[in-house]
Design brief:
By secondary structure, this protein is α/β, with parallel strands linked by helices. The chain is built from 8 helices and 13 strands. It binds calcium ion. Calcium ion binds next to loops.
Length: 222
């Protein structure tokens, strides 16, 4: 899952980013409102953690712009205790949740999980599953009937994307945006390599699902 953190307090922004990365999220970080809006407008994120008081453009205006452009990425607002008005305002403008600073890591992670809990069949906070095939975040592995095989971080992220959107063709472009970022210069054949690793690993554990190729477009989990 790809998240965007928009926060101008550099220490807090970096700490947040670090915590989220350790919990298997792919994270981009913006330290001001203008760059934050630019990034958010790409629509590639599964969730945005958005501070309210920001240089350039405040969080509420970013949110307003996003929703006006019909970008429905879930947003978790970060608010200071003194910003109650802004918080109400933010929820009215289409924020999904808010978190008051200072907060503890456990609460942040719980809110982020709730924020991004929309697709796929979620067994618990550390597992995603499809048709009995399980993707485990803690062990970074896929499991079928007690057989498991470890995935690399990129393989994990690609598998997460596939298992969260079964039967949907995921264009290669979309996979690149999600996993490597929209400015990356990763080429299609890099993805092909990861997909072939994943197919081998799925067959090693005799998983009853396959990654099908939609010729010239992308892949789907069937
Ligand atoms: Ca701030």
């Amino acid at each position: 899952m790809r998240l965007l953190v928009v926060e101008d307090e550099v220490q807090l922004a970096d700490a947040l980013t670090e915590i989220l990365k350790r919990n298997m999220y792919t994270v981009d970080t913006s330290y001001d409102g203008i760059e934050g809006l630019d990034n958010a407008m790409t629509g590639v994120y599964d969730g945005i953690i958005l501070d309210i008081m920001l240089p350039g453009m405040n969080g509420i205006d970013i949110l307003r712009n996003l929703r006006a452009e019909k970008i429905s990425t879930p947003v978790l607002l970060l608010t200071a205790r003194s910003e109650i008005e802004d918080k109400i305002n933010g929820l009215d403008c289409g924020a999904d949740d808010y978190l008051t600073k200072p907060f503890v890591t456990g609460e942040l992670l719980a809110r982020v999980r709730a924020l991004t809990r929309r697709r796929g069949e979620i067994v618990n906070e550390n597992k995603l599953a499809y048709n009995g095939l399980e993707l485990n975040k803690n062990t970074c592995s896929i499991i079928w009937k007690g057989n498991d095989v470890k995935l690399s971080l990129k393989e994990y992220h690609i598998m997460e994307l596939l298992i969260s959107n079964p039967h949907q063709i995921l264009p290669k472009e979309r996979i690149i945006e999600k996993i490597w970022g929209y400015e990356s210069d990763v080429e299609y054949n890099n993805i092909e390599v990861y997909i072939s690793f994943l197919r081998k690993k799925l067959s090693v554990i005799s998983a009853p699902v396959q990654i099908k190729t939609a010729r010239g477009i992308g892949y789907s989990l069937e």
